[in-house]
Structure formats: structure tokens, C-alpha cells
Amino acid sequence: MPETPFTVQLPDGTTRQCYSPSSIVRQYFSSGDELVVTDFLDKARTALTEASARVEAKFGYACSGATNSLATIESWSAQLKPSDSVKIIHI
Predict the structure, then answer these.
(1) Complete edge-to-edge strand list for the sheet that includes strand 15-18
(2) Going by C-beta distance under 8 Å and a sequence separation of 6 or more, which residues neighbour residue 61?
(3) Could you give the 3-state DSSP secondary structure of residue 12?
(4) H or E stretch covering 86
(5) CB 7 within 8 A of CB 83
(6) Between 37-59 and 64-77, two packed helices, what is the crossing angle to 10 degrees?
């Protein structure tokens, strides 16, 4: 269950570093993907929820890192228009 950081580029060109405790995010995102914010958020929520569940299955507790990462993503995504595009720069 390797940690998998990923980098997202926002519409203004700035980047955000994101964290997943599991490589499950690779099933949802690939380097070069461009997604509208609503699709990105849907995939991030699903991927990070699954990542936390994997941690819980292995260690017996949910992953606060996944929860915190999702909260951070939701916070900066709230500043964007739902139709804006974000790009996965690296995963």
C-alpha cells in the first residue's frame, strides 16, 4: 500500500500537492489527465475514501491523512468554478 502523492495544476497555473496513503488513486487519475472540477472532486472523493478503507482493512483504523487530503482538496476546489479544468501533472 505505497503512499502516492500527486500534483494538480489549477486553471491559473499554480499547482497543489495532494496525498494518498494508497496507490488506488492511480485507478482514478493518470499524469496528463484534464478534468473539470466537479469530475476531479468526484474521483478524488472516491479514491481517497477507498484509500482510507484500505488502510482501515490493513491496520484497523481509518487514515486521517486521506481525510485531511480530501478536506484540503475540497477547500481549494471551492474557490474554483465547477466547470474549470484542472490537470494531473504527476502521479
Answers:
(1) 15-18, 6-9, 85-90, 34-36
(2) 55
(3) coil
(4) strand 85-90
(5) no
(6) 170
Quick one: average pLDDT of 33-43? 98
Here the cell at position 7 is 500534483
Grid cell listed for 42: 468526484
Amino acid letter, residue 82: P
Q: How is residue 49 written as a grid cell?
A: 475514501
Residue 60 grid cell: 484497523
**Could you tell me if 72 and 44 are in contact, meaning their C-beta atoms sit under 8 angstroms apart?**
no
pTM above 0.85, yes or no: yes
Convert the pLDDT of each residue in 50-72 to its tens digit.
999 999 999 999 889 999 999 99
Nearest to 47 by CA among 11, 12, 76, 4: 4
Q: What is the SS3 assignment for 30-80?
A: CCCCEEEHHHHHHHHHHHHHHHHHHHHHHHCCCCHHHHHHHHHHHHHHCCC
